[in-house]
Amino acid sequence: MEAYLKFKEVFSGLTRAHGVFYKGEKKESGKVGGKAFIIKEEVTDKHWKDHIEGIDPSLGIIPIRDDATCSWSCIDVDDYSIDVRKTIQLYTKLNLPIIPCRSKSGGFHLFIFYSEPVPAQDAIKKLTEVASVLGFADCEIFPKQESLNAERGDTGNFLNLPYFKGDMSGRYAMDEKGESLTLDEFFNLVSQKAITHDQLQNLSVKPLKQKKTTFDGPPCIEIMQNMGIFEGSRDDVVFHYCVYAKKKFGPGEWQNKVMEFNTKYCQPPMSYDQVKAKIDQHEKKEYGYKCKDVPMRNHCDSSKCRIRKFGIGRDDIEMNIANLTKLESDESVWHLDVDGKRITVTTDELMDQRMFRKKVLETHTSLPVEMSKRDFEARIRELLEQCEVIKMPYEVTKEGQFNSHLDDFIYNQAIADEAEEVLNHCVWKTEGKVFFQLASLERYFRKVQFKEFSSTQMGSLIRDRGGDSKQVRLNKNTVKNLFFIPDPRPQEEKKLNVPNVKSDVPF
Hints:
disordered C terminus, 17 helices, 4 domains, eight-stranded mixed β-sheet, alpha+beta, elongated, DNA primase, PRIM domain, 507 residues
């Protein structure tokens, strides 16, 4: 089997659309800039072959299929300061079937492959746990959606694939030592590490030095205390732990528990005065968990946190709104995830918080936290910065449909022998042009139930086709304003084959 066909098999995903990436300049952050689009066209063998051969644009595949399954999942790590080899050592010790690949941006992708299609929901849930334990909870996880609104044109989000230019690629997979693998070596590793659905569900995702006792607070605290809390993060973690200790142990006891936590888990422990200052802060004022602060957010598992006795709770946490895509057409349609569930909104619903919350309530049993107008707009701007655009084919736009119907009108109408016959809804072809009454075209549009444009707008679209209108004398008494366009199917006049006949030949 040719390499591109094997590659196609490994990265199987949605086939009715795909992503493309045109490389730009590298940004100050280290991330490679460029333009990324979703093309709503079938993924062909040529796309796969061109990718392996390094022919621009590189290929991006949407992992989730219309049946809500996937054959691979991925944690997209954009932190370029991460020590890849240490990460490899960590998940190897945890016995996780991960295959790392360098990404186009210089970060890396942590893949898990499946020997059979698995529900996207299960893959996302397990990879969320993996990301939390590895310290990548704030990284993107693919697939991003548990299901797609296929009937509304939703395609989900794509991931740029490795091995652009094959074995010459800078996007390569790595072995347990962090050494690059050839494409064939990568295929062999996938066949070794691919897991079944049952193996995915039974995959144990626990931090090293896991305690036997059940922890009833935020998972981030559990993970960090088992991994060790080091200088540089101690201050924030101890502050975070104070919130938990007050909830768990109550007045008179929680202060000592904070002191014990510092001594036992901080490496090295903070001074007595430093910890006492944190305790004094919390005695004077009630604080909430610092979920959005590093390192807590790196180990966040909100789904677990919500159901734990002293976790964040459902009423205290904002709904997770993410993964905005735009279906770009005459009237744009937007798809986004709200707490993992895919919803579809109009532009007005996206921009108006009241309308947006109402839309969410149609598909959810809880309501997004109401924000100030300023904060809501800031959140929308943040989503728009990461928004992926789905390019719709011209044929499905209103203008494309108009021109398609116009061509059908011309081909389906009777062709007039004389100009006068246009009065009977015929079309008249002459001098490479097709003449017709606008009233005849409107009559045809009513028949096919196309009502998108006014007469004035249709006139403008006809002119965009290189046509126009002119006064034409149809007969002695009738002059009509007819519209015309260049004949879409011009035919050369047939010349009659007339034999040479001598004048002196008798009849």
